[in-house]
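Hi V.,

Quick status before I head out on leave. The structure for the redesign project is tokenized and pasted below; the design run finished overnight.
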């Protein structure tokens, strides 16, 4: 019997400098995918609620007041608390600061970066996490390489051209399941991906959950990502 998390942290404090001019007057999670009518964070909150989450803590930073005003005026599908770092704490410190506001420190929790547009079963990811007795589980994506690839034979003749092939490497997809003990392992300041994650990996306590085949995933980093997400979601009927 798995206990599925009902609480989550959304890390929404990034500058979003590569998304300018969209982020000149709003934080990155408030950027709307053209044609969806919803900012990225609105999509994330709907997804979390559909997966059984009742409480979310949103860690704000750049233009925090714009995000807070939207959260206060929107009809939300779950309870939302916001936190703003008084001084930069780094990714790990910011995650810990937000996690300390979760309603139940004795229960597992999800986390997601505030610029991820995706849909897959978080409950299945939580079950995977539990089966491996992991302290932390990362969702893993296989992005497409933005360039065309060339295949050659052993003699050096070109045999094929492949447009935007899948990467041979899995990457951190920016969605997580954490056990209750994980919060105390985070640094007060600094980057957990250089400290906590490697330590857990050495102890075989860090698991990687490959996104299910066909699951939609995109990190919204640049204006090109916005355009491509709009086209892909339009083809899917809104994602």
């Amino acid at each position: 019997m798995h206990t599925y998390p009902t609480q989550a942290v959304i890390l929404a404090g990034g500058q979003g400098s590569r998304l300018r001019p969209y982020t000149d007057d709003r934080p990155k999670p408030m950027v709307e995918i053209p044609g969806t009518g919803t900012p990225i964070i609105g999509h994330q909150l709907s997804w979390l609620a559909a997966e059984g989450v009742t409480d979310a803590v949103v860690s704000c930073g750049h233009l925090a007041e714009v995000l807070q005003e939207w959260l206060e005026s929107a009809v939300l599908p779950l309870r939302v608390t916001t936190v703003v770092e008084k001084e930069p704490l780094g990714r790990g410190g910011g995650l810990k600061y937000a996690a300390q506001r979760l309603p139940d420190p004795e229960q597992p929790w999800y986390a997601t970066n505030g610029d991820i547009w995706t849909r897959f079963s978080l409950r299945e990811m939580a079950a995977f996490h539990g089966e491996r007795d992991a302290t932390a589980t990362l969702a893993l994506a296989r992005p497409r390489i933005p360039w065309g690839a060339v295949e050659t034979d052993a003699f050096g003749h070109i045999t094929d051209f492949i447009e935007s092939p899948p990467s041979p490497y899995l990457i951190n997809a920016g969605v997580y399941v954490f056990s209750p003990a994980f919060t105390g392992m985070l640094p007060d300041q600094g980057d957990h991906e250089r400290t906590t994650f490697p330590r857990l990996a050495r102890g075989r306590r860090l698991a990687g959950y490959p996104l299910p085949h066909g699951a939609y995933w995109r990190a919204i980093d640049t204006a090109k990502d916005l355009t491509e997400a709009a086209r892909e979601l339009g083809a899917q009927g809104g994602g």
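Above is the designed sequence. The chain has one domain: 7-237.

G. will cover questions while I'm gone.

Best,
W.
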